[in-house]
Amino acid sequence: MSKALVIGASRGIGLEFVRQYRAAGAQVVATARSEEGLARLRELGASALRLDVADTASAAGLAWQIDGHQFDEVVIVAGVYGPRIAGLQTPSEADFDAVMHTNVLGPMRVLPQLSEALAPGARLAIISSRMGSIGLRSSGSGWLYRASKAAVNSVLKDASLLLQDQAICISLHPGWVRTEMGGEGADIDVATSVAGMRTVLATLKPAHNGGFFNYDGQALAW
Ligand code: NDP
């Protein structure tokens, strides 16, 4: 694997993707929206681009920033959880907009700008969540975040059909991971999660296009 693009890499899972790609000798282009995030990426030897997927002008500039690149792997990681909603509580419009904007509109802004930047046989993943699965759902908590991840799974499915001649596209659940979002009590560390997802990406076949997978490679119900 020679060149990777990681969207939303200032910390957590995205930053670990950059760390592991660099350790494997890959060239990496990665995005962050803060100075601190950009500095962390440069320290790892990545080309750092400023990108806020929730900002129209910032997100629209991606295509020209990656002009001339051909990526073998693309991982769209940027995401927010939003408010901790326990039961049937209507989120505020501001919370709804913030979560949907980042988790759903963000990938819908990024994906159309990638078609010229995919190397033959490229592999692309959106980091979704098992919480977005409707088939596996046994709790109703966190319905705003869940709705956003169910929606982005639909976005991925369409992208997998529209880009099928250019890339194998999948939705990935990273596990419950010890990051700022996952919290200290989560199941696995970020290195284990990302190592698993990199193995899933590296072993993808065309038949996997449009699938939803756990970080250990297990297929998940939509
Ligand atoms: P973190 O909260 O640790 O990191 C979130 C990342 O997303 C940061 O790099 C953040 O950048 C970036 N981000 C947020 N909003 C934007 C934006 N508008 N534009 C660009 N970047 C943005 O979370 P994780 O690393 O744990 O999560 C990464 C992904 O994995 C998310 O999509 C999350 O939903 C998903 N996930 C995580 C799980 C877990 O257990 N941790 C479980 C299931 C799914 P900044 O530093 O600028 O805020």
TrEMBL record:
Pfam families: adh_short. Gene3D superfamilies: NAD(P)-binding Rossmann-like Domain. GO terms for molecular function: oxidoreductase activity, acting on the CH-OH group of donors, NAD or NADP as acceptor. PANTHER family: SHORT CHAIN DEHYDROGENASE (PTHR45458:SF1), SHORT-CHAIN DEHYDROGENASE/REDUCTASE SDR (PTHR45458). This is SDR family oxidoreductase. It comes from Paucibacter sediminis.
